[in-house]
């Protein structure tokens, strides 16, 4: 009986020791897992913020340009000085957002400092510039909007031939705006897909 009691005591002691050892191993593992998840959530949250910024800044940039062209198309008054300032401001915001998103593998960088360094390489070693060309279209249309808006401001003094040329330019700007709207719709689809992935990963296991 005494032997049995001693045996049970030994088993209990071993069991306690094993549980203690298991806890000593498991606790750090769980803590490491929790810390890893916390770091991942922080990275995902930062990425989500960058994607949202890219979505909102490209929307603001395109809306401004679309409304300016529509204003000229409808023959309404246009404050050219305010427009030019707003073009620069929205371009700067979109540039910063695109450069930030490049860190997440979204290669829509527009500033010279990031284009060559961050854009992925094709199999032939040349930079993949498809996305960049589409975003460059935003800046290209700015140059035309600036020129057309300045002509539009003087439209009452223009000769008939110059008026016809101005109207043709406005019509061409309208076409370019439609192309940019299509591009942004594609961009938005890519951003929303990535946002869904990040939100799914943020849900508790």
Number of helices: 5
User: Could you list the spans in which at least 5 consecutive residues all have pLDDT below 50?
Assistant: 4-11, 109-131
- Total strands: 0
N-to-C span: 50 Å
CA-atom Rg in angstroms: 30 Å
**Helix-strand string:** HHHHH
Structure description:
This protein is an all-alpha fold and 205 residues long. 82% of the residues lie in helices and 0% in strands. Helix 2 (80-102) runs antiparallel to helix 4 (130-153). The two termini are 50 Å apart.
Task: Identify the notable features of this structure and list them briefly.
205 residues
Helices, strands, pairings?
Blueprint (H helix, E strand, L loop, with lengths): L1 H72 L6 H23 L9 H7 L11 H24 L6 H43 L3
Helix pairs in contact: 1-2, 1-4, 1-5, 2-4, 4-5
Would you kindly provide a brief summary of this structure?
The chain is mostly helical. It has helices at 2-73, 80-102, 112-118, 130-153, 160-202.
């Amino acid at each position: 009986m005494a032997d049995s009691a001693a045996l049970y005591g030994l088993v209990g002691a071993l069991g306690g020791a094993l549980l203690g050892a298991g806890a000593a191993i498991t606790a750090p593992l769980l803590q490491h897992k929790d810390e890893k998840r916390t770091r991942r959530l922080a990275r995902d949250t930062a990425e989500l913020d960058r994607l949202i910024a890219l979505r909102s800044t490209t929307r603001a940039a395109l809306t401004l340009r679309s409304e300016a062209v529509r204003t000229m198309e409808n023959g309404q008054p246009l404050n050219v000085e305010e427009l030019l300032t707003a073009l620069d401001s929205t371009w700067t915001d979109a540039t910063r957002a695109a450069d930030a998103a490049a860190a997440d593998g979204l290669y829509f960088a527009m500033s010279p400092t990031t284009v060559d360094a961050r854009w992925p390489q094709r199999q032939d070693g040349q930079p993949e510039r498809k996305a960049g060309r589409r975003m460059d279209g935003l800046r290209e249309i700015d140059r035309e909007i600036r020129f057309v808006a300045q002509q539009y401001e003087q439209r009452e003094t223009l000769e008939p031939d110059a008026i016809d040329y101005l109207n043709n330019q406005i019509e061409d700007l309208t076409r370019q705006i439609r192309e940019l709207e299509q591009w942004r719709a594609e961009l938005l689809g890519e951003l929303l897909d990535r946002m869904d992935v990040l939100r799914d990963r943020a849900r508790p296991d």
